[in-house]
Fold this protein.
Amino acid sequence: MKDKDELSPEKVQTPQIVRPLVTSEEALKAFNEYQLLKKKLRGEGDFVEFTDSKGQKKEAPTKQWRTKLTRFFGISVEIVKEEVEYLQDGSFVYKVTARAKAPNGLYMEADGSCWSKTKEKAGMGKDIYHLTRSHAITRAKNRAVLELVGFGEVSAEEIEEEEPAKEIKNEDTYRSKKEYWDKIWNMIREQGITNQEIMNFIGVKTLKDLPKDKLEKVKDLLEAIAFGAIDFKKIKEMTTNKLIDMDDAEIDLILHYEPEENDESY
């Protein structure tokens, strides 16, 4: 016998116009708040500059900026699908679907893919499979987060890989303000990381002992730790060298560290 609900007549849905969830004033306020967030919190490596098809210069946010957005908007990001398409020439395309979810329950899914051939030159002597997968995951997560809160921005991973990206030097003087760095240090300490641990990793007793040529890199490191762009415990395991003894390439490797394949903290 059929269930009573199955025997009941279907309710006729009355057509309704899709309306915005907020007023135009509230939408404008949210947009302005996001622009202010970009101005106040952006640092080197957060955005890259590129030229679009019309010859206009624009900027695109990077994975580092996406990480900041997830922290300040309370967004969680997860991978919901992964697949690999192998091509006849032996190369492959890694495809990923990521879901970014806001605290209010709204979410956005986005795809990201990467062709292994684009990683062969940069990945000489490295695991091409991991590099390709990692880039696809980064693309998918960036797109999902930006589509959820980014007001139509294109991420740095959307730019054609053949076009070299130029990092934007932020002219804002916020990095020279004591209040800003007090906030950064507080965010680091909230993660259970002490000042002494940071100084030991850098290789100095105080930042006053830091060579001038390392100052900007140390600022990048502190911001990356504070905003959760890198895991301090993991980067300490990567090397026993002190940061002041590293060259720029070694420091950049730490700042752009990608988790291993079985690590879900992409």
User: Anything to note?
Assistant: Strands lie at 47-51, 57-61, 76-86, 92-101, 107-115, 166-167.
